[in-house]
Design brief:
Elements: H1 3-21, E1 22-23, E2 28-29, H2 40-57, H3 60-63, H4 66-72, H5 81-97, H6 102-105, H7 112-122, H8 127-176, H9 181-236, H10 240-247, H11 253-271
C-alpha cells in the first residue's frame, strides 16, 4: 500500500471527524454530531451528478474506470528505474560481443516496451524505423494513462459545481416552504451539505488522486524515455559504461544512490 495515500487519507478524515464532533470549549466528544453531515439527497445530487456529467464528457470506456484509477493511487508505483537500467547495461554487455545474442535474453525481459525495442534491434530494423516505432508506442501508451488522470480531474472540477447546484435546489425548496417550519430544516440541509460534499469529494478524493496519477505517469514516461535511449545506444553499439553513465541521468538522486549501492554490492559479490 502506498504510504502517502494511506497517511493522507487517515489525517484528512480524522481531522474532519474531530472538527465535526469535538467540543473544544468543554473538551468533550459527541459522535452523534456526525449524523448532521449525512444527507442522502445531497449525496445523490453531488456524487450522482458528478458521475453523470463525467459519463457525458468522457467516452464510456474511459469514464467507467474512475474507481480503478483511484485504486491505483493506493498502490506504490511499479516503475522500476533502477532494475531496468541494470538490465539495459547487462544487455549492452551482451550486445557488445554479439548483438544477435540478445535474442536469447528476450524471453526473460518482463518489460514489453524494452523487449519489443530489443527485438527490433535483433531483427536489424532501420534505426529511424526503430525511433519512430518506439516514439509511437510511447505516445499512445502515455495518452491512455493521461486519459485516466483526466477523468479524475474532470470529477474534481465537477464536484464543487454540483455542490453549488444542490445548494440552489435546497434554497428553492426552502423558499417554497417558508410557511411549513417542518420543511425548512431538510431544505436547508440540502442547501448547505451539498456544498460541503462537493468540496469534500473534490479536495479529499478526486483532485489528490488525479495529482498522484500525474506523478506516476511522469515517472512511467521517464522509464520509457530511458528505455528508448538505451535501445538506440545498443543498436549503435555504444560501450556499456557510456550507456550506464548517460542513462543514470534519468534517475532521481535517491534512485542514483540505490543504483550505486546495488552496483557496489554486485561488484563486491563478484570479487568475493
Amino acid at each position: 500500500m502506498e504510504q502517502g495515500t494511506l497517511i493522507g487519507n487517515i489525517l484528512a478524515w480524522l481531522l474532519l471527524v474531530v472538527a465535526m464532533t469535538f467540543d473544544f470549549v468543554n473538551f468533550s466528544l459527541d459522535i452523534g454530531k456526525l449524523g448532521y453531515f449525512v444527507d442522502v439527497p445531497s449525496l445523490l445530487i453531488v456524487f450522482g451528478g458528478t458521475i453523470a456529467s463525467t459519463f457525458i464528457l468522457h467516452p464510456m470506456d474511459e469514464a467507467k474506470t474512475f474507481g480503478k484509477s483511484i485504486g491505483k493511487t493506493w498502490k506504490p508505483n511499479d516503475v522500476q528505474l533502477v532494475e531496468t537500467l541494470t538490465l539495459i547495461v547487462d544487455v549492452a554487455k551482451i550486445a557488445r560481443k554479439n548483438i544477435l545474442a540478445i535474442e536469447d535474453a528476450l524471453p526473460s525481459i518482463e518489460n514489453l516496451y524494452l523487449r519489443s525495442g530489443l527485438r527490433l534491434v535483433v531483427d536489424r530494423v532501420d534505426r529511424q524505423a526503430i525511433v519512430d516505432m518506439l516514439s509511437h508506442e510511447m505516445k499512445f501508451t502515455m495518452a491512455g494513462k493521461d486519459s485516466e488522470a483526466a477523468v479524475l480531474g474532470t470529477m474534481g472540477s465537477l464536484c464543487p459545481a454540483w455542490g453549488m447546484l444542490g445548494t440552489l435546489v435546497g434554497l428553492v425548496l426552502l423558499l417554497q416552504n417558508l410557511d411549513d417550519p417542518s420543511a425548512i430544516g431538510p431544505a436547508m440541509a440540502v442547501a448547505l451539505i451539498t456544498t460541503f460534499y462537493g468540496s469534500l469529494f473534490a479536495n479529499v478524493i478526486f483532485n489528490p488522486c488525479k495529482g498522484k496519477l500525474d506523478i506516476y505517469n511522469a515517472e512511467y514516461k521517464t522509464l520509457m524515455e530511458m528505455i528508448k535511449d538505451g535501445v538506440l545506444y545498443i543498436e549503435r553499439g555504444e560501450r556499456p559504461d557510456f550507456i550506464e553513465s548517460d542513462l543514470m541521468n534519468y534517475l532521481p538522486p535517491d534512485k542514483k544512490a540505490m543504483y550505486e549501492a546495488l552496483k557496489f554490492e554486485n561488484q563486491g559479490g563478484g570479487e568475493g
